[in-house]
């Protein structure tokens, strides 16, 4: 019995150790998010994580006019790493590997891209925060999203 218990304990520890190497998809981003400033608006929608992927959509507009849009996805690779793929206006997708991740924040970066080079998402209470910038933090643009419909 003691040998069986120690084998089960060893199996559980190995399973937990393997999970520690695989980054968790940022499920805290899930939902519909809105930033409204006068007649200007910005929206992001993120799906629940399923199959190692989160699908996102963003759009920006003024009044009833759509100014820009993009399709995004966060994908977990076989080695457990996360990458954000962004395709503005339906163009070619650009990959931004995750470089830092906390409990409720994540930073993706691609120093070879013109702009943005760094994409940072984090939560502050019920708000979803986002910032894009160059690698050195210059040319920063930020968004403060509230849950849509609230």
Shape: globular
Distance between the termini: 55 Å
Which CATH class?
A: Mainly Beta
Helix content: 10-25%
Low-pLDDT segments: 5-21
Number of helices: 1
Biggest beta sheet summary = 10 strands, antiparallel, barrel
Order of SSEs? HEEEEEEEEEE
Which architecture does the CATH hierarchy give at level 2?
Beta Barrel
Classification by helices and strands: mainly beta
Beta content = over 45%
Radius of gyration: 18 Å
Topology of this protein?
Elements: H1 2-21, E1 31-37, E2 40-46, E3 53-62, E4 65-76, E5 82-88, E6 94-101, E7 105-109, E8 118-124, E9 127-133, E10 141-147
Antiparallel strand pairs: 1-2, 1-10, 2-3, 3-4, 4-5, 5-6, 6-7, 7-8, 8-9, 9-10
Explain what you see:
- With 150 residues, the chain is mainly beta.
- The chain has one domain: Lipocalin, CATH 2.40.128.
- 13% of the residues lie in helices and 51% in strands.
- It contains 1 helix and 10 strands.
- A 10-stranded antiparallel beta barrel has the order 1-2-3-4-5-6-7-8-9-10.
- Strand 7 and strand 8 form a beta hairpin.
- The longest helix is centred in the first third of the chain and has 20 residues.
- The chain is globular, with a radius of gyration of 18 Å.
- It starts with a helix and ends with a strand.
- About 11% of the residues have low confidence.
């Amino acid at each position: 019995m003691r040998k069986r218990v120690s084998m089960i304990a060893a199996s559980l520890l190995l399973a937990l150790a393997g999970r520690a190497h695989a980054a968790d998809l940022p499920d805290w981003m899930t939902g519909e998010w809105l930033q409204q400033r006068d007649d200007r608006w910005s929206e992001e929608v993120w799906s629940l994580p399923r199959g190692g992927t989160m699908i996102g959509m963003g759009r920006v507009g003024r009044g009833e006019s759509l100014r820009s849009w993009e399709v995004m996805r966060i994908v977990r690779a076989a080695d457990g790493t996360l990458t954000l793929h962004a395709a503005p206006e339906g163009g070619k997708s650009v990959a931004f590997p995750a470089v830092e991740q906390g409990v409720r924040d994540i930073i993706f970066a691609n120093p070879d891209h013109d702009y943005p080079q760094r994409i940072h998402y984090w939560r502050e209470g019920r708000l979803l925060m986002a910032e894009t910038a160059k690698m050195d933090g210059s040319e920063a643009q930020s968004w403060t999203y509230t849950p849509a419909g609230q």
